[in-house]
Design goal:
- The complex is a heterodimer of chains A (555) and B (489).
- Helices cover 33% and strands 18% of the residues of chain A.
- Chain A is α+β, with helices and mostly antiparallel strands and 555 residues long.
- Among the domains of chain A are: 93 residues, Alpha-Beta Complex (Aspartate Aminotransferase, domain 1); 102 residues, PH-domain like (Roll), CATH 2.30.29.
- In chain A, strands 2-8-7-6-5-3-4 form a seven-stranded mixed β-sheet, sandwiched between helices. In chain A, strands 11-12-15-14 form a four-stranded antiparallel β-sheet, covered by helices on one side.
- In chain A, a hairpin with a 4-residue loop joins strand 20 and strand 21.
- The longest helix of chain A has 39 residues.
- Chain B contains 15 helices and twelve strands.
- In chain B, the strands form three sheets. In chain B, strands 1-7-6-5-4-2-3 form a seven-stranded mixed β-sheet, with helices on both faces. In chain B, strands 10-12-11 form a three-stranded antiparallel β-sheet, with helices on one face.
- In chain B, helix 5 packs parallel to helix 11.
- The two termini of chain B are 31 Å apart.
- The chains are: A alpha+beta (555), B alpha/beta (489).
- The interface between A and B is large, with 209 and 205 residues.
Chain lengths: 555, 489
């Protein structure tokens, strides 16, 4: 085995120096009944050629983003990784180093960590950042526990629009510490319904920017609530979006965490990742994990070293701010190279290209027969409402080489028709067009009696004409929800059936024809007593810009 | 350690010039949009450096040149298992069929990845003797925490959750043990080590009662010694209804020789970045797989990568008693690829050679240095030897001074001052991948330094001299906290 260099001669000489005859004699302290008597029941070793072949075969069984076009996101994004990233982090001096506990022999790594901390703090608009955490989810959970210890409170409030996995990890971390996790509903509108659940009991309020559904979060409003309740504001922020949107820091966040994978790290089936962690200066001594600082040696030379060490487990033991030891140094280095390579203008360009591609995808996919579920601004990601189950669309497009997105029914009850779609800067117009045309063909192929091409109204019933020409009628009484956008409108009834109208009898519902629109909606309105009082005004004067949808629901 | 051949690079921010860029970024070919209409308000520009690609490459290359790694020299850091990281592992982990997988892809699109995870799990089950393995924990301390959470859930399921609020740790334990216990809501009590370096069983018996949730044992211990009474210890804890966790940092001494699952442990963590050669990367990513006996299976973190009734791969998310999810996705998947590459290279015949040669190397160093740096306990050691430099205190020299002098002689220092119970401790772990010549050179340097300590201790006190910096003022670093570059500093 090339990894063990000993010759027979070496072993002999070494055993002689030690004063024993055989290697087995060195294991005398292991009781005989605990020693393995039989060889391990595992396959025989492989030479390097066969070894690579074996692993290569396993790799080729997977459909990666090199084989398919990836519109999956949800916190992990298929972004461009500059060639310099892989080249520099694979240098042995970095790759095979240990934690820089001996600063004199580790100045190179320590300086990169200092640069990393600076760039992360700058990205999030915060005073300082640490040397990294495991991943976005654990960084957020550690931030929540840090808030509990700062505030001496044992409750955290989290939005339902925070990544479900992150909320699961938060629960896992909080449960043994007897910290209560309260969740603010967000599913109806894609945003926090009400921040009233935050009270003086909350150590912190946790939001995500942009949120799990891709929507831009109103951090300012959350700051006001936290000021009132004396809670800290923790924002889990996507680093690419942070390159474009107002920083969480300037909007009032106390702790900012995030998943650093978009900063030059391969998706790698979700690991290794990179937890980002930044906070206000006043909390520096409560921060979990390592921090590198600058100082001087006796000759006055500037140097770097790990600092605020008395927070850490190897010194403070059970009173440490966290149990974290090994972090994600190499991934932090990858991010440092990435951030330096794209630089000030590059990150802006990546973010803007993302927005541009996202807007184009929204327009093409809605033309293909999907609808945008939530009203409001998005960054890089959005929820599509589909006439058929999202998992069916996902599976069908998977066969055609498209990773279409994440079906939300797996995470939220009743969301079987919702698909979370991400579009990064590396998606091209052609790829998006292809996605749209494949989606249209999947939807067209479906024998789906709920997907309607036309309708008209009389006094009490909605008449819907199906694709095959059959006309169906439904009582207005059963209607739960009406959604109106510039080019179409849809209804959802109490049985969960969704109907969308895009042309035919209601083609007159159009910006230029408010009279026709009004007439139709007025007819409907008479039947809808007990609905939101403002609905009529919103229908007659809908905000038709930006493909925004207006949703009316029974109150 | 090479001596300084390049100037210490300035902070990259000081090299920034407006308009430069370090890579050729893809730009969208879709129609332009009104940014304000799409996302509303935007931020000021991000003050990241603007630097050309060559200067970028030089910056990081020059920084790497003032950093020590296993690739540049011997790294005898005790408890850290700084073994060679095979390059083939890097090649397999970089395959696009692994590196470009999204964690939320449909299960049907990642059969090869699931096979990788199952493959590592199968190897680790056989090597450790545990019934189940999961790789969701992403680092050693994370694995400890996950095990304690499962233990807590186990006690709760038996109605003993409230009563058992104490975790015992030996006085020689890694700091992560008590820190993880605290992170799991437990009070920590220390168990002393006896004169031979073993767990003081009588002391354990005295504190072991029905309030104890678990005893965390490192085996071999942090003293580099195999705990000969481990079965008795496990029985003692089990009699009172407690669970025994094995800190697997020292698994390298046991691969193919003995299995912690047979010792009586209920669960353990493994550091794939120690024993199974995935690179330490300057402090991570780690990979903290855990092993456990079947009575803890119900509490494992979800989702599990497992096999169904007919051996088919399954991602099992339907686990009502699970402690929940402990990290974002499946753990450090690309580290699992590296570990599988390593395990498959060794195979059944090769694996026991790891422990055999790791133990041989450690005992060789112990024998060669015993006259100048006596072992804390004069017994055969396992994969690392714990020496004491206390006799040099009378010359005004401490263990740290010996370490700093070693840097000037071209070696990375051993671990100092750990375990805490050994005065002027030097913890040396050579691993199996070092040749006899390297060990000899290291021992020669140590012997030279011990002579210097007696005759010319200034050489040690003022070391290191040949590095880009000497010893740094740690107090200043804390007092004038400078953790973020600013233009005016």
């Amino acid at each position: 085995m090339p990894y063990i260099p000993h010759s027979e001669e070496d072993r002999k000489e070494m055993l002689k120096t030690i004063g024993v005859d055989r290697i087995e004699d060195l294991f005398v302290e292991i009781p005989d009944d605990l020693r393995l008597k039989a060889p391990l029941n595992v396959p025989e070793g492989l030479d390097e050629y066969k070894l690579f072949g074996h692993l290569n075969e396993l790799a080729s069984k997977n459909m990666s983003a090199s084989d398919a076009v990836c519109f999956l996101g949800a916190g992990i994004y298929d972004r461009y990784i500059p060639a310099v990233v892989g080249a520099l982090i694979s240098r042995g001096e970095f790759l095979t180093a240990y934690t820089p506990y001996q600063p004199e022999a580790s100045q190179g790594y320590l300086q990169t960590i200092y640069e990393f901390q600076t760039m992360v703090a700058e990205l999030y608009g915060m005073d300082l950042a640490n040397a990294s955490m495991y991943c976005g989810a654990t960084a957020m959970a550690e931030g929540a526990l840090m808030a509990c210890s700062i505030k001496r409170r044992s409750q955290v409030v989290v939005s339902e629009a925070v990544h479900p996995h992150y909320r699961q990890v938060l629960e896992t971390y909080c449960s043994p510490m007897d910290v209560e996790v309260k969740t603010i509903p967000a599913l109806a509108s894609g945003r926090e319904e009400s921040l009233d659940l935050v009270t003086e009991e909350a150590a912190c309020l946790i939001l995500q920017q942009p949120n799990f559904f891709g929507m831009i979060t109103d951090i300012k409003a959350a700051r006001e609530v936290c000021d009132r309740t004396g809670s800290l504001l923790l924002v889990s922020a996507d680093p690419t979006a942070a390159g474009l949107l107002p920083t969480p820091g300037e909007l009032g966040a106390d702790i900012v965490t995030g998943e650093g994978q978009p900063l030059g790290i391969p998706m790698g089936l979700g690991g290794p990742l990179l937890g980002l962690f930044a906070c206000r200066r006043e909390y520096a001594r409560q921060i979990p994990g390592r921090i590198v600082g600058r100082t001087h040696d006796e000759q006055g030379r500037l140097g770097y070293t790990m600092t605020l060490r008395t927070r850490e487990q190897d010194i403070r033991r059970e009173r440490a701010t966290s149990n974290i030891c090994t972090n994600e140094a190499l991934m932090a280095l990858a991010a440092t190279v990435y951030m330096s390579a794209v630089g000030k203008n590059g990150i802006r360009s990546v973010a803007e290209s993302t927005v541009q591609n996202t807007q184009y995808a929204i327009s093409r996919l809605t033309e293909a027969g999907a609808r945008i579920k939530y009203k409001g601004s998005v960054f890089g990601e959005f929820v599509l409402s589909l006439p058929i189950e999202a998992s069916q669309v996902r599976d069908e497009l998977h066969k055609r080489g498209i990773l279409a997105g994440l079906p939300l029914g797996e995470y939220f009850e009743g969301e079987e028709h919702s698909l979370l779609v991400a579009v990064t800067e590396i998606r091209t117009k052609d790829e998006i067009d292809w996605f749209a045309s494949e989606l249209a063909s999947v939807l067209d192929n479906e024998e789906n009696d709920l997907w309607l091409v036309g309708a008209s109204l009389d006094q009490s019933r909605v008449q819907v004409r199906q694709a095959d020409g059959h006309v169906d009628a439904r009582s207005v009484e059963t209607i739960e929800k009406v959604t109106v956008t510039k080019s179409n409108w849809s209804i959802k009834d109490q049985f969960g059936l969704e109907m969308q109208f895009t042309d035919g009898a209601l083609a007159e519902i159009h910006e230029e024809d408010t009279a026709g629109f009004e007439a139709v909606m007025a007819a409907l309105s008479k039947q809808l007593e007990g609905w939101d009082e403002e609905w009529y005004e919103k229908v007659v004067y809908p905000p038709f810009e930006k493909n925004a949808a207006v949703v009316f629901e029974r109150v | 350690m090479t001596t300084r051949t390049v100037p210490t690079p300035k902070p990259i921010f000081e090299k920034s010039r407006p308009g430069r860029i370090g890579c050729n970024i893809p730009v969208a070919d879709t129609p332009k949009v009104d940014l304000a209409a799409a996302v509303g308000e935007t931020r000021d520009s991000v003050a990241w450096p603007e630097i050309g690609e060559l200067d970028l490459v030089r910056h990081f290359t020059n920084l790497s040149q003032i950093n020590y790694g296993i690739d540049t020299g011997f790294y005898p850091l005790g408890s850290c298992t700084m073994k060679y990281n095979p390059r083939i592992n890097e090649q397999t982990a970089a395959l696009p069929g692994f590196a470009r997988l999204h964690p939320m892809q449909p299960e049907e699109s990642i059969p090869g990845a699931i096979e990788v995870m199952l493959g590592v799990q199968d190897f680790l089950k056989e090597i450790t003797g545990f019934d189940e393995i999961t790789m969701q924990p992403v680092a050693g301390a994370h694995g400890e925490l996950t095990c304690l959470m499962m233990i807590k859930a186990y006690h709760e399921s038996r109605g003993e959750g409230d009563q058992r609020n104490i975790v015992l740790v030996p006085d020689s334990a890694h700091g992560t043990n008590p820190a993880s216990a605290a992170r799991c809501g437990y009070k920590v009590k220390s168990v002393p080590t006896d004169a031979e370096g073993n767990t003081d069983i009588e002391a354990l018996r005295a504190v072991m009662d029905e309030t104890v949730a678990a005893f965390m044992v490192t085996n071999p211990s942090t003293l580099g010694l195999f705990e000969p009474h481990i079965k008795e210890i496990c029985d003692l804890v089990h009699e009172k209804g407690g669970q025994v966790f094995c800190d697997g940092a020292n698994m390298n001494a046991m691969v193919g020789v003995t299995r912690p699952g047979d010792h009586g442990f209920d669960c353990m963590h493994l550091n794939l970045h120690k024993t199974f050669s995935t690179p330490h990367g300057g402090g991570g990513p780690g990979c903290g797989a855990i092993g456990l006996q079947s009575h803890l299976e119900a509490f494992m973190p979800a989702p599990l990568v497992t096999r169904g009734a007919v051996g088919e791969p399954v991602l099992d998310d339907d686990r009502p008693q699970s402690i929940g999810r402990v990290s974002s996705f499946f753990g450090q998947f690309l580290m699992a690829v590296r570990a599988l590459t390593y395990l498959a290279a060794y195979g059944s015949d090769g694996l026991p050679e790891i422990a055999r040669h790791a133990v041989l190397n450690a005992n060789y160093i112990k024998a060669r240095l015993k006259d100048v740096l006596p072992p804390a306990h004069d017994r055969p050691c396992m994969h690392e030897c714990i020496l004491t430099a206390k006799e040099y205190k009378k010359y005004g020299v401490r263990a740290l001074d010996i370490s700093k002098r070693l840097i000037d002689l071209g070696f990375h220092p051993p671990t100092n001052y750990f375990p805490l119970i050994v005065p002027e401790c030097m913890m040396i772990e050579p691993t199996e991948t070092e040749s006899k010549e390297t060990l000899d050179e290291f021992c020669d340097a140590m012997i030279q330094i011990c002579t210097e300590a007696r005759e010319d201790h200034e050489l040690l006190i003022n070391a290191p001299q040949k590095q880009v910096v000497g010893r740094l003022n740690e107090a200043e670093a804390v007092k004038n906290l400078d953790v973020k570059w600013q233009a005016d500093r």
